[in-house]
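Budget justification, computational time. The allocation requested in the original proposal was used primarily to generate C-alpha cells for proteins on the priority list. As evidence of use, we reproduce two of the resulting records. The first is shown immediately below.
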Amino acid sequence: MAAAPCRNPFGIIANLDGSSRFLSRKLEFSAVNFPPNVEFSRLGFYRSLMCKVEFLLCDYVQVLSVLYEFLGFVGRVVSYRVENSRSHIREDDVEHGGHVHCSSNADGPTNEEVLTPVLDMIDNPMNLKNLSLKELKQLADDIRTELSIMSKTNKSFRPSLSTVELTVAIHHVFNAPVDKIAWDIEDQTYPHQLLTGRRTRLNKLGQANDLSSYACRNEYDPFGTGHGCSSISSGLGMAVARDIKGKKDRIVSVISNETTMAGQVYEAMSNAGYLDSNLVVILNDRHHASNPKLDQAPKASINAVSSTLSKLQSSQFFRKFREVAKVLTKRIGRGMHEWAAKIDEYARGMVGPTGSTLFEELGLYYIGPVDGHNIEDLLCVLHEVASLDSMGPVLVHVVTKEEYAVEDNQTGKASEDVIKGACTIESGPIRSRPRTYSDHFVKALITESEIDEDIVVVHAGMGMETPFRALKDKLGDRFFDVGMAEQHAVTFSAGLSCGGLKPFCVIPASFLQRAYDQVVHDVDRQKIPVRFVLTSAGLVGSDGAAHSGAFDITFMSCLPNMIVMAPSDEIELARMVCTAVDIEDRPVCLRYPRGAIASLDPNLYLREPIEVGRGRLLLEGKDIALLGFGSMVHNCLRAHAVLAQMGIDITVADARFCKPLDMKLVRMLCKNHKFLITVEEGSIGGFGAHVAQFISLDGLLDAGVKWRPITLPDNYIEAAQPNEQLAAAGLTGNHIAATALNLLGRTRDALLLMC
C-alpha cells in the first residue's frame, strides 16, 4: 500500500491510497476537523466561512488531482528508463509479445540467458523500497535463478537458498548502509551481496582477487563474516557505540542455528540482555543440525496460529501494553511483578516453540517462529520491530529450509539445480571425483580402528566432508560430531584420552584457531595424548582467506610438548596415522591439505610407523638443498625438474616433522651444500623458523651455509583457483627454482623463468 496524506491549516486530510509502488487512482478525503480553539459568534460569519472552506476544498481537490497525474507520469517515465537501461531487449521478442530477456553478467561463467527482470533493476538496497509485494516475490525468484547460474562454479550456494526471502525483507525494511547488518556465515550472504552491487564479482567467484576480498568490511558489511558466532557480539558493540555517540541507526545481527552450538553466541546474548541496547537478532533456523539427534528433535512448526502470534508479539500495541503492565505491577509491589513475569514467561513458553524461553532468560525479547519464505509475514514482523524506538534486544526466530522450491517452472528448475549444487572436490560422490587426502586418511584410520578398538573420532567444524560420513557410519558410537564447538571438541577429546581411549580430534586447520586456549592448557600443558588431525591445511582455493589454514604450523609447533608432522603423499599419510596411534605420552598434530592428490598407488597401504623426528632424503645433489615440509615436497620435486634442465644438480629432502626436527638430516644438508632453502605452505614463524633456530644455535650459519625460507606471504591470500593462489604466494615449482637461481647469481635466468 502507498499513502500520500495532504493537510491544510483547517485539518482537512486527503489520502491517496493504492497497492502499486506508484500512487493509485483512488482518492479519499476525511471529514473536516476544525481546530478546537476556533470560535464563531455569528451564524452569518459561520456560513461565510464554510463557503470559503468549500472553495478551498475544491482548490485542494484540483491541486491534488494534478499532483497525482504528475507523479504517475514521473513514475512511469522512471520505471521505463530503469527497465530500458537494465534489460537487454530483443527486437524479435518485443514484436511477439514484448518479453524482456535479461542475461547474466557478460563477465560471468556462462553465456546462458536467464530471466531476472527485477534483479536486473537492483543496483543497491534503496531500489527495493518502492517495490510492491508481488515484485519482491519476483525478486526472490530472480535471486534463486541467479544462484543457479553461479552454482556452476566450484562454490556451494546451498546455504544461501534459506536466506533469499529473509534478505529481501531485511533490505526492504532497513536502510543499509545507514542501518548496520552483520552476518554470521559467509555462505549465507550471497543474496545480500547480489542486492548490494556485487553481482559481477559473484559471477567471477573462484577467480583471482574475486569476491572474498570484498567479504570483509565494506560499505554494506560493517563487520566481516568468517566462521560464525561473531555477529551478535559485533552487532552489540556497534549498538553500544551508537548509543554513546547519540546516533539513531538500527543494528541487525543475523545468525544461523549452526552457530548456536558455539558458546560465544550465548555470551553475547547474555551481555546484550544486561546492557539492554536496541539490537535486532534474527535467528535463521534452517532445519539443519550436524547432530543426528537434533535432526530428530521436534521442529518449530509454522502455521496460521504461529504466524498470528508472531505478528501480535512484534506489534507496538502488545509491546507497549507489556511495558505498562511491568510498570503497574512494580508499583503494586507485594511480589506482583515477579508473579506477573512468571505468568508471562509461562504463557509465551506454551505458545512458543521448544527452547524459546531460553532467549527470554538471557534478556532478549523473543518473537516467532516466523515463516522465512513468506515475505509478507517477514515484512510485517520486521516493520514492527524496526518501528520501535526503545525496545532493547529482540530475537526474531525465522524458520527456513534449503530445499524451498518456488512455483515458477523455470525458476524452480534452476533452484533444483542449485540444491543439487556444484560438487566440490571434497563433497562430491567418491566415484565422481578424484581421491583426496581425506579419503586416504579415512581408509588408514578404519584399518587402525579394526585393530585397536580404543580409537575414537571427535569431529568439529562447519559441515562434514564426504569421506568422514563413511567413517562415521563405520565407527558408529565411536564417532562424535560436535558441530561448531571446537573448544568443547578439544577438551572432550582430552577427557576421552584420560578415560583410556585414543581420540583423533578432526578439525579444519582454520577452525582450530578458536580452540587454541584449550589446546594449550587442556592438552599440551598436561601432555595428554590427543591426536589432532588438521584438514584443509594451507590454501583452500575458492573458500579464500576465511578457511585458509595458514597459521597452524606456527601456533602448534611452538607448544613445548606437541609433535607436528605433515605427509607429502598418501603413503606417508597412512604411515603417520599408524605413528599417531602408537604415541601415548604426548599430543600429536597431523596436518594435510585440501584437494586431490597425485596417487602413487591407490591400493598400496603400508602399516609401518615412522620414527618420530626422522625425515628422509629423496634426491641427492650437490649445488643446492631443498627441504620441503608436507605438500610442498612435490613442488620441490618440480623445481628439481626445472633446474635439472639447466644443468643444476640439487638435493630434495622431505622433513616430515616440524617438531621434533630431524637435526641429523638438517646438519647433513648444511654441511654438504652451500645453500639451503626451506619450503612450507604456512605463515612466517613456522617450519622455516625452527630450522633457522637450529642452524644458528648449532653454528651452521657461521660455517658459511646460506639459508632462504619460502613461506606464505605476510598477507591474506583471497579466493582464487589453487594454482593461482600458489603463484600469488610464490610457492610454485618455478618460484622455488627462481629462488635457487638467485642464490647462484643467475638473476637473469630467474627473471626469464618467471615471465
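The second record produced under the same allocation is shown here.
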Amino acid sequence: METLIPIINRLQEVFLTVGTDVIQLPQIVVVGSQSSGKSSVLESLVGRDFLPRGSGIVTRRPLVLQLINVMFSLFVLQGISPEPIHLKIFSPKVLNLTLVDLPGITKVPVGDQPEDIEAQVYEMIQSFISNPNSLILAVSPANSDLATSEALKLARDVDPEGRRTLLVVSKLDLMDAGTDALEVLLGRVIPVRLGIIGVVNRSQHDINTQKSLEDSLRGEQAFLQRHYPSLAARCGSRYLARTLSRLLMHHIRDCLPELKSRVTALSGQYQARLSGYGQPVEDHSATLLQIVTKFASDYCNTIEGTPRYIQTTELCGGARICYIFHETFGRTLQSIDPLGGLTELDILTAIRNATGPRPALFVPEISFELLVKRQIKRLEEPSLRCVELVHEELQRIIQHCSSYSTQELLRFPKLHDSIVEVVTALLRKRLPVTNEMVHHLVAIELAYINTKHPDFSDAAQVSASVNSQQVVLLCLPSGLSDQACTPQLSGFLYFYAVLAVNSQGHFARTFVQNVVSKAAHDSGLDGGKRWKNDRAVEERAPSSGFGSPSKGQAINLLDTALPPSRRLTTREQRDCEVIQRLIKSYFLIVRKSIQDSVPKAVMHFLVNFVKERLQSELVGQLYKQTLMHQLLVESADTAQQRDEVAHMLEALQKANNIISEIRETHLW
C-alpha cells in the first residue's frame, strides 16, 4: 500500500507540468498559529534543517513538500512563481509524504506586513484546507489553551465531522512546572477523530549549538519516556511520520475512484475543446466555403426558429421579429387614437374652407377627405419604426451566430470581420428599399379615399341620413321646428328639400320655401307668417356689427374672429359628429390594412430577401483566391489555447494511465 504515495507523487508531477490545479490531489496541509512550532515539526519529518527562521511571518507563500524515500539525499526546487513553491526531497530517512506548509496565523500586522494580513492568511489557508482530498495537520502548542486554538477552529470550519483532521500538540517540554498535557493527548479535553500526537520541538539553543536532528529525536523520546511513559509509543516525531504516511495512504485509496472519474470527465471536456479549435488549415478553399455555408445556414435557421443553440433568457431571431410585428408594432397602432389631434374647431374650419364663399347646405365630402388623410399620415412613423426594429434584429443575429453557432469564426478574426461586413452591407442596402415600400403603402392609402369600401358602407349611410335631416331643417321656415312638422307635411317636405339640394339654385330653394310656407299656413301653423315677418325685419335691418364709417376711418372686416370657446350650434355639433364618425370608421379600416401589409412588406423586401441571397452574397464577396489566405489566418490566442488544451489533454491521458496502473497492480 505504501507504493500508492509515490504514484500520487507521479500524478502531481504530471499536473505540475501543465501548471494547473484542476485536479485536487490528496495531500497533507499543515496549519497552525505563528510560532506554534510548525517549522520544527516539518524539519523533524524531513530530518534536515531547511526552513527559514526569524521573527514575524517567515513563511510567506505556500510550500509544497514531496518527501520521496530513496537511497540518497537530494533537494530539488522546481521554481518560484505566484503559485506555491514545490520542493522535492529525496532521502532514505523520510517516508513518502506530500506536505504543504502555510504561513502561520497572525492577528496584528508587524513591520512591513499589510493591514489585512490576517484576512490574507485566512483566505490562503482556506483555499488549501477546503480541498476535500486534503488531510489537515493542525499544530497547537501545549503551553496554550487548546480551546482557543485557531488551527482547530479553521479545521472545524471545513471539516466539522473531523474525518480528515489530525492534531499535533507541540512544545510539550515548555509547559509550566507541575502541569502536563496528558488529558489533552488522551482526547479528554477536545476529541479529535484521527488522533492527537504530542511532539517535542528543537529549542533555539539546540539550533544555535547545531544539535543534530538525530540527537534531537533521541532527546524527544527520552523526554516522553520520563513524563508520558504510557503514551511514549504513540507520540513523537517518528510516530507522527508513520501515522501521516498511513493516513495519507488510506486517504489516497479512498479518493482514487473519484479521482479517476474526475480525470475521465476532464479528458472528455478538453477533447471537445480541442475539437472546437480545429486542426491547422490545409485546404483553404474548402475550409472557407464550409465556414461561409455553415454561417449562412445558422443565420437562416435562427430566423426560422431552428438554431442549434436555442436561448432561454431572451427572444432571438425569428421569435423577436414575430414579437415586433404582433406586439410592438401592433400595440403601437392600436394605441393611436383615430381622432387624436383633431378638435371640433379644426373640423368646423375644414368644413368652412371646403365650401368656399357659399354657406353649406350639407357636410362637404372634401372636408372628410382632408381630415382623414391627416390622420392616416400618422401611421407612417410607427410603420417605419417597425422596419428599423426588424433591421436591428437581423443585425443582432450576426453576433448570435458568431458567438453561439459558428465557433470556427473565432479562429479566424479577419474572416469573421469580413462576414460581418458583407452581411451588414446587405442589410444596409435593403433598408431604404423596404422603407420606400412602407412609405408607398401609406401613400397608396392617401392617394384614394375609397368611400365605397364594403366596411365603410354603414358610416356612409349614417352620413347621408344626417345630411337629409339637415336639408329638411334648412328648408323649414323660422319658428317651424322639426318637432312641429305634421305627418301630412313630412312626405312632400323631404321631396322638395331634396329637389332644392340637387338643383343648388336660388329659384329652387325659394320655390321650396314658398311651398313649405303655404303648406304650413294651410295646416294651421304660424310659421309662414312669422317667416315673412322675419324676412321683412332682415331686409330693413342694417348689417350687424358694421355702422356707417366716419370720414377717414378704416375698417378691417377680419377683426371679428370666431370665439374658440363658444358653444356650438345644433347644426355645427351634428356636422362635427358626422365627420368624426366617418374619420374613425375609415381610419380603422386603413389601420387594419397597414397592420397587415407592413409586416408582409418587411418580410418580402428585407427578411426573405436576405435569407435567399445571403450565401450567394458571401461566396461572391469572399470566395476569392486573393483573399483566402488572408482571411484564414488564425488568431494568436486561438493557436496558444489549442497548444495549452493539447498539453492538458496529454497530461490527463498520462494521469489516466497511472490510475489504470494502480488498478492493474491491485493497489486500489
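A brief technical remark on that second record: The chain has 22 helices and eight strands.
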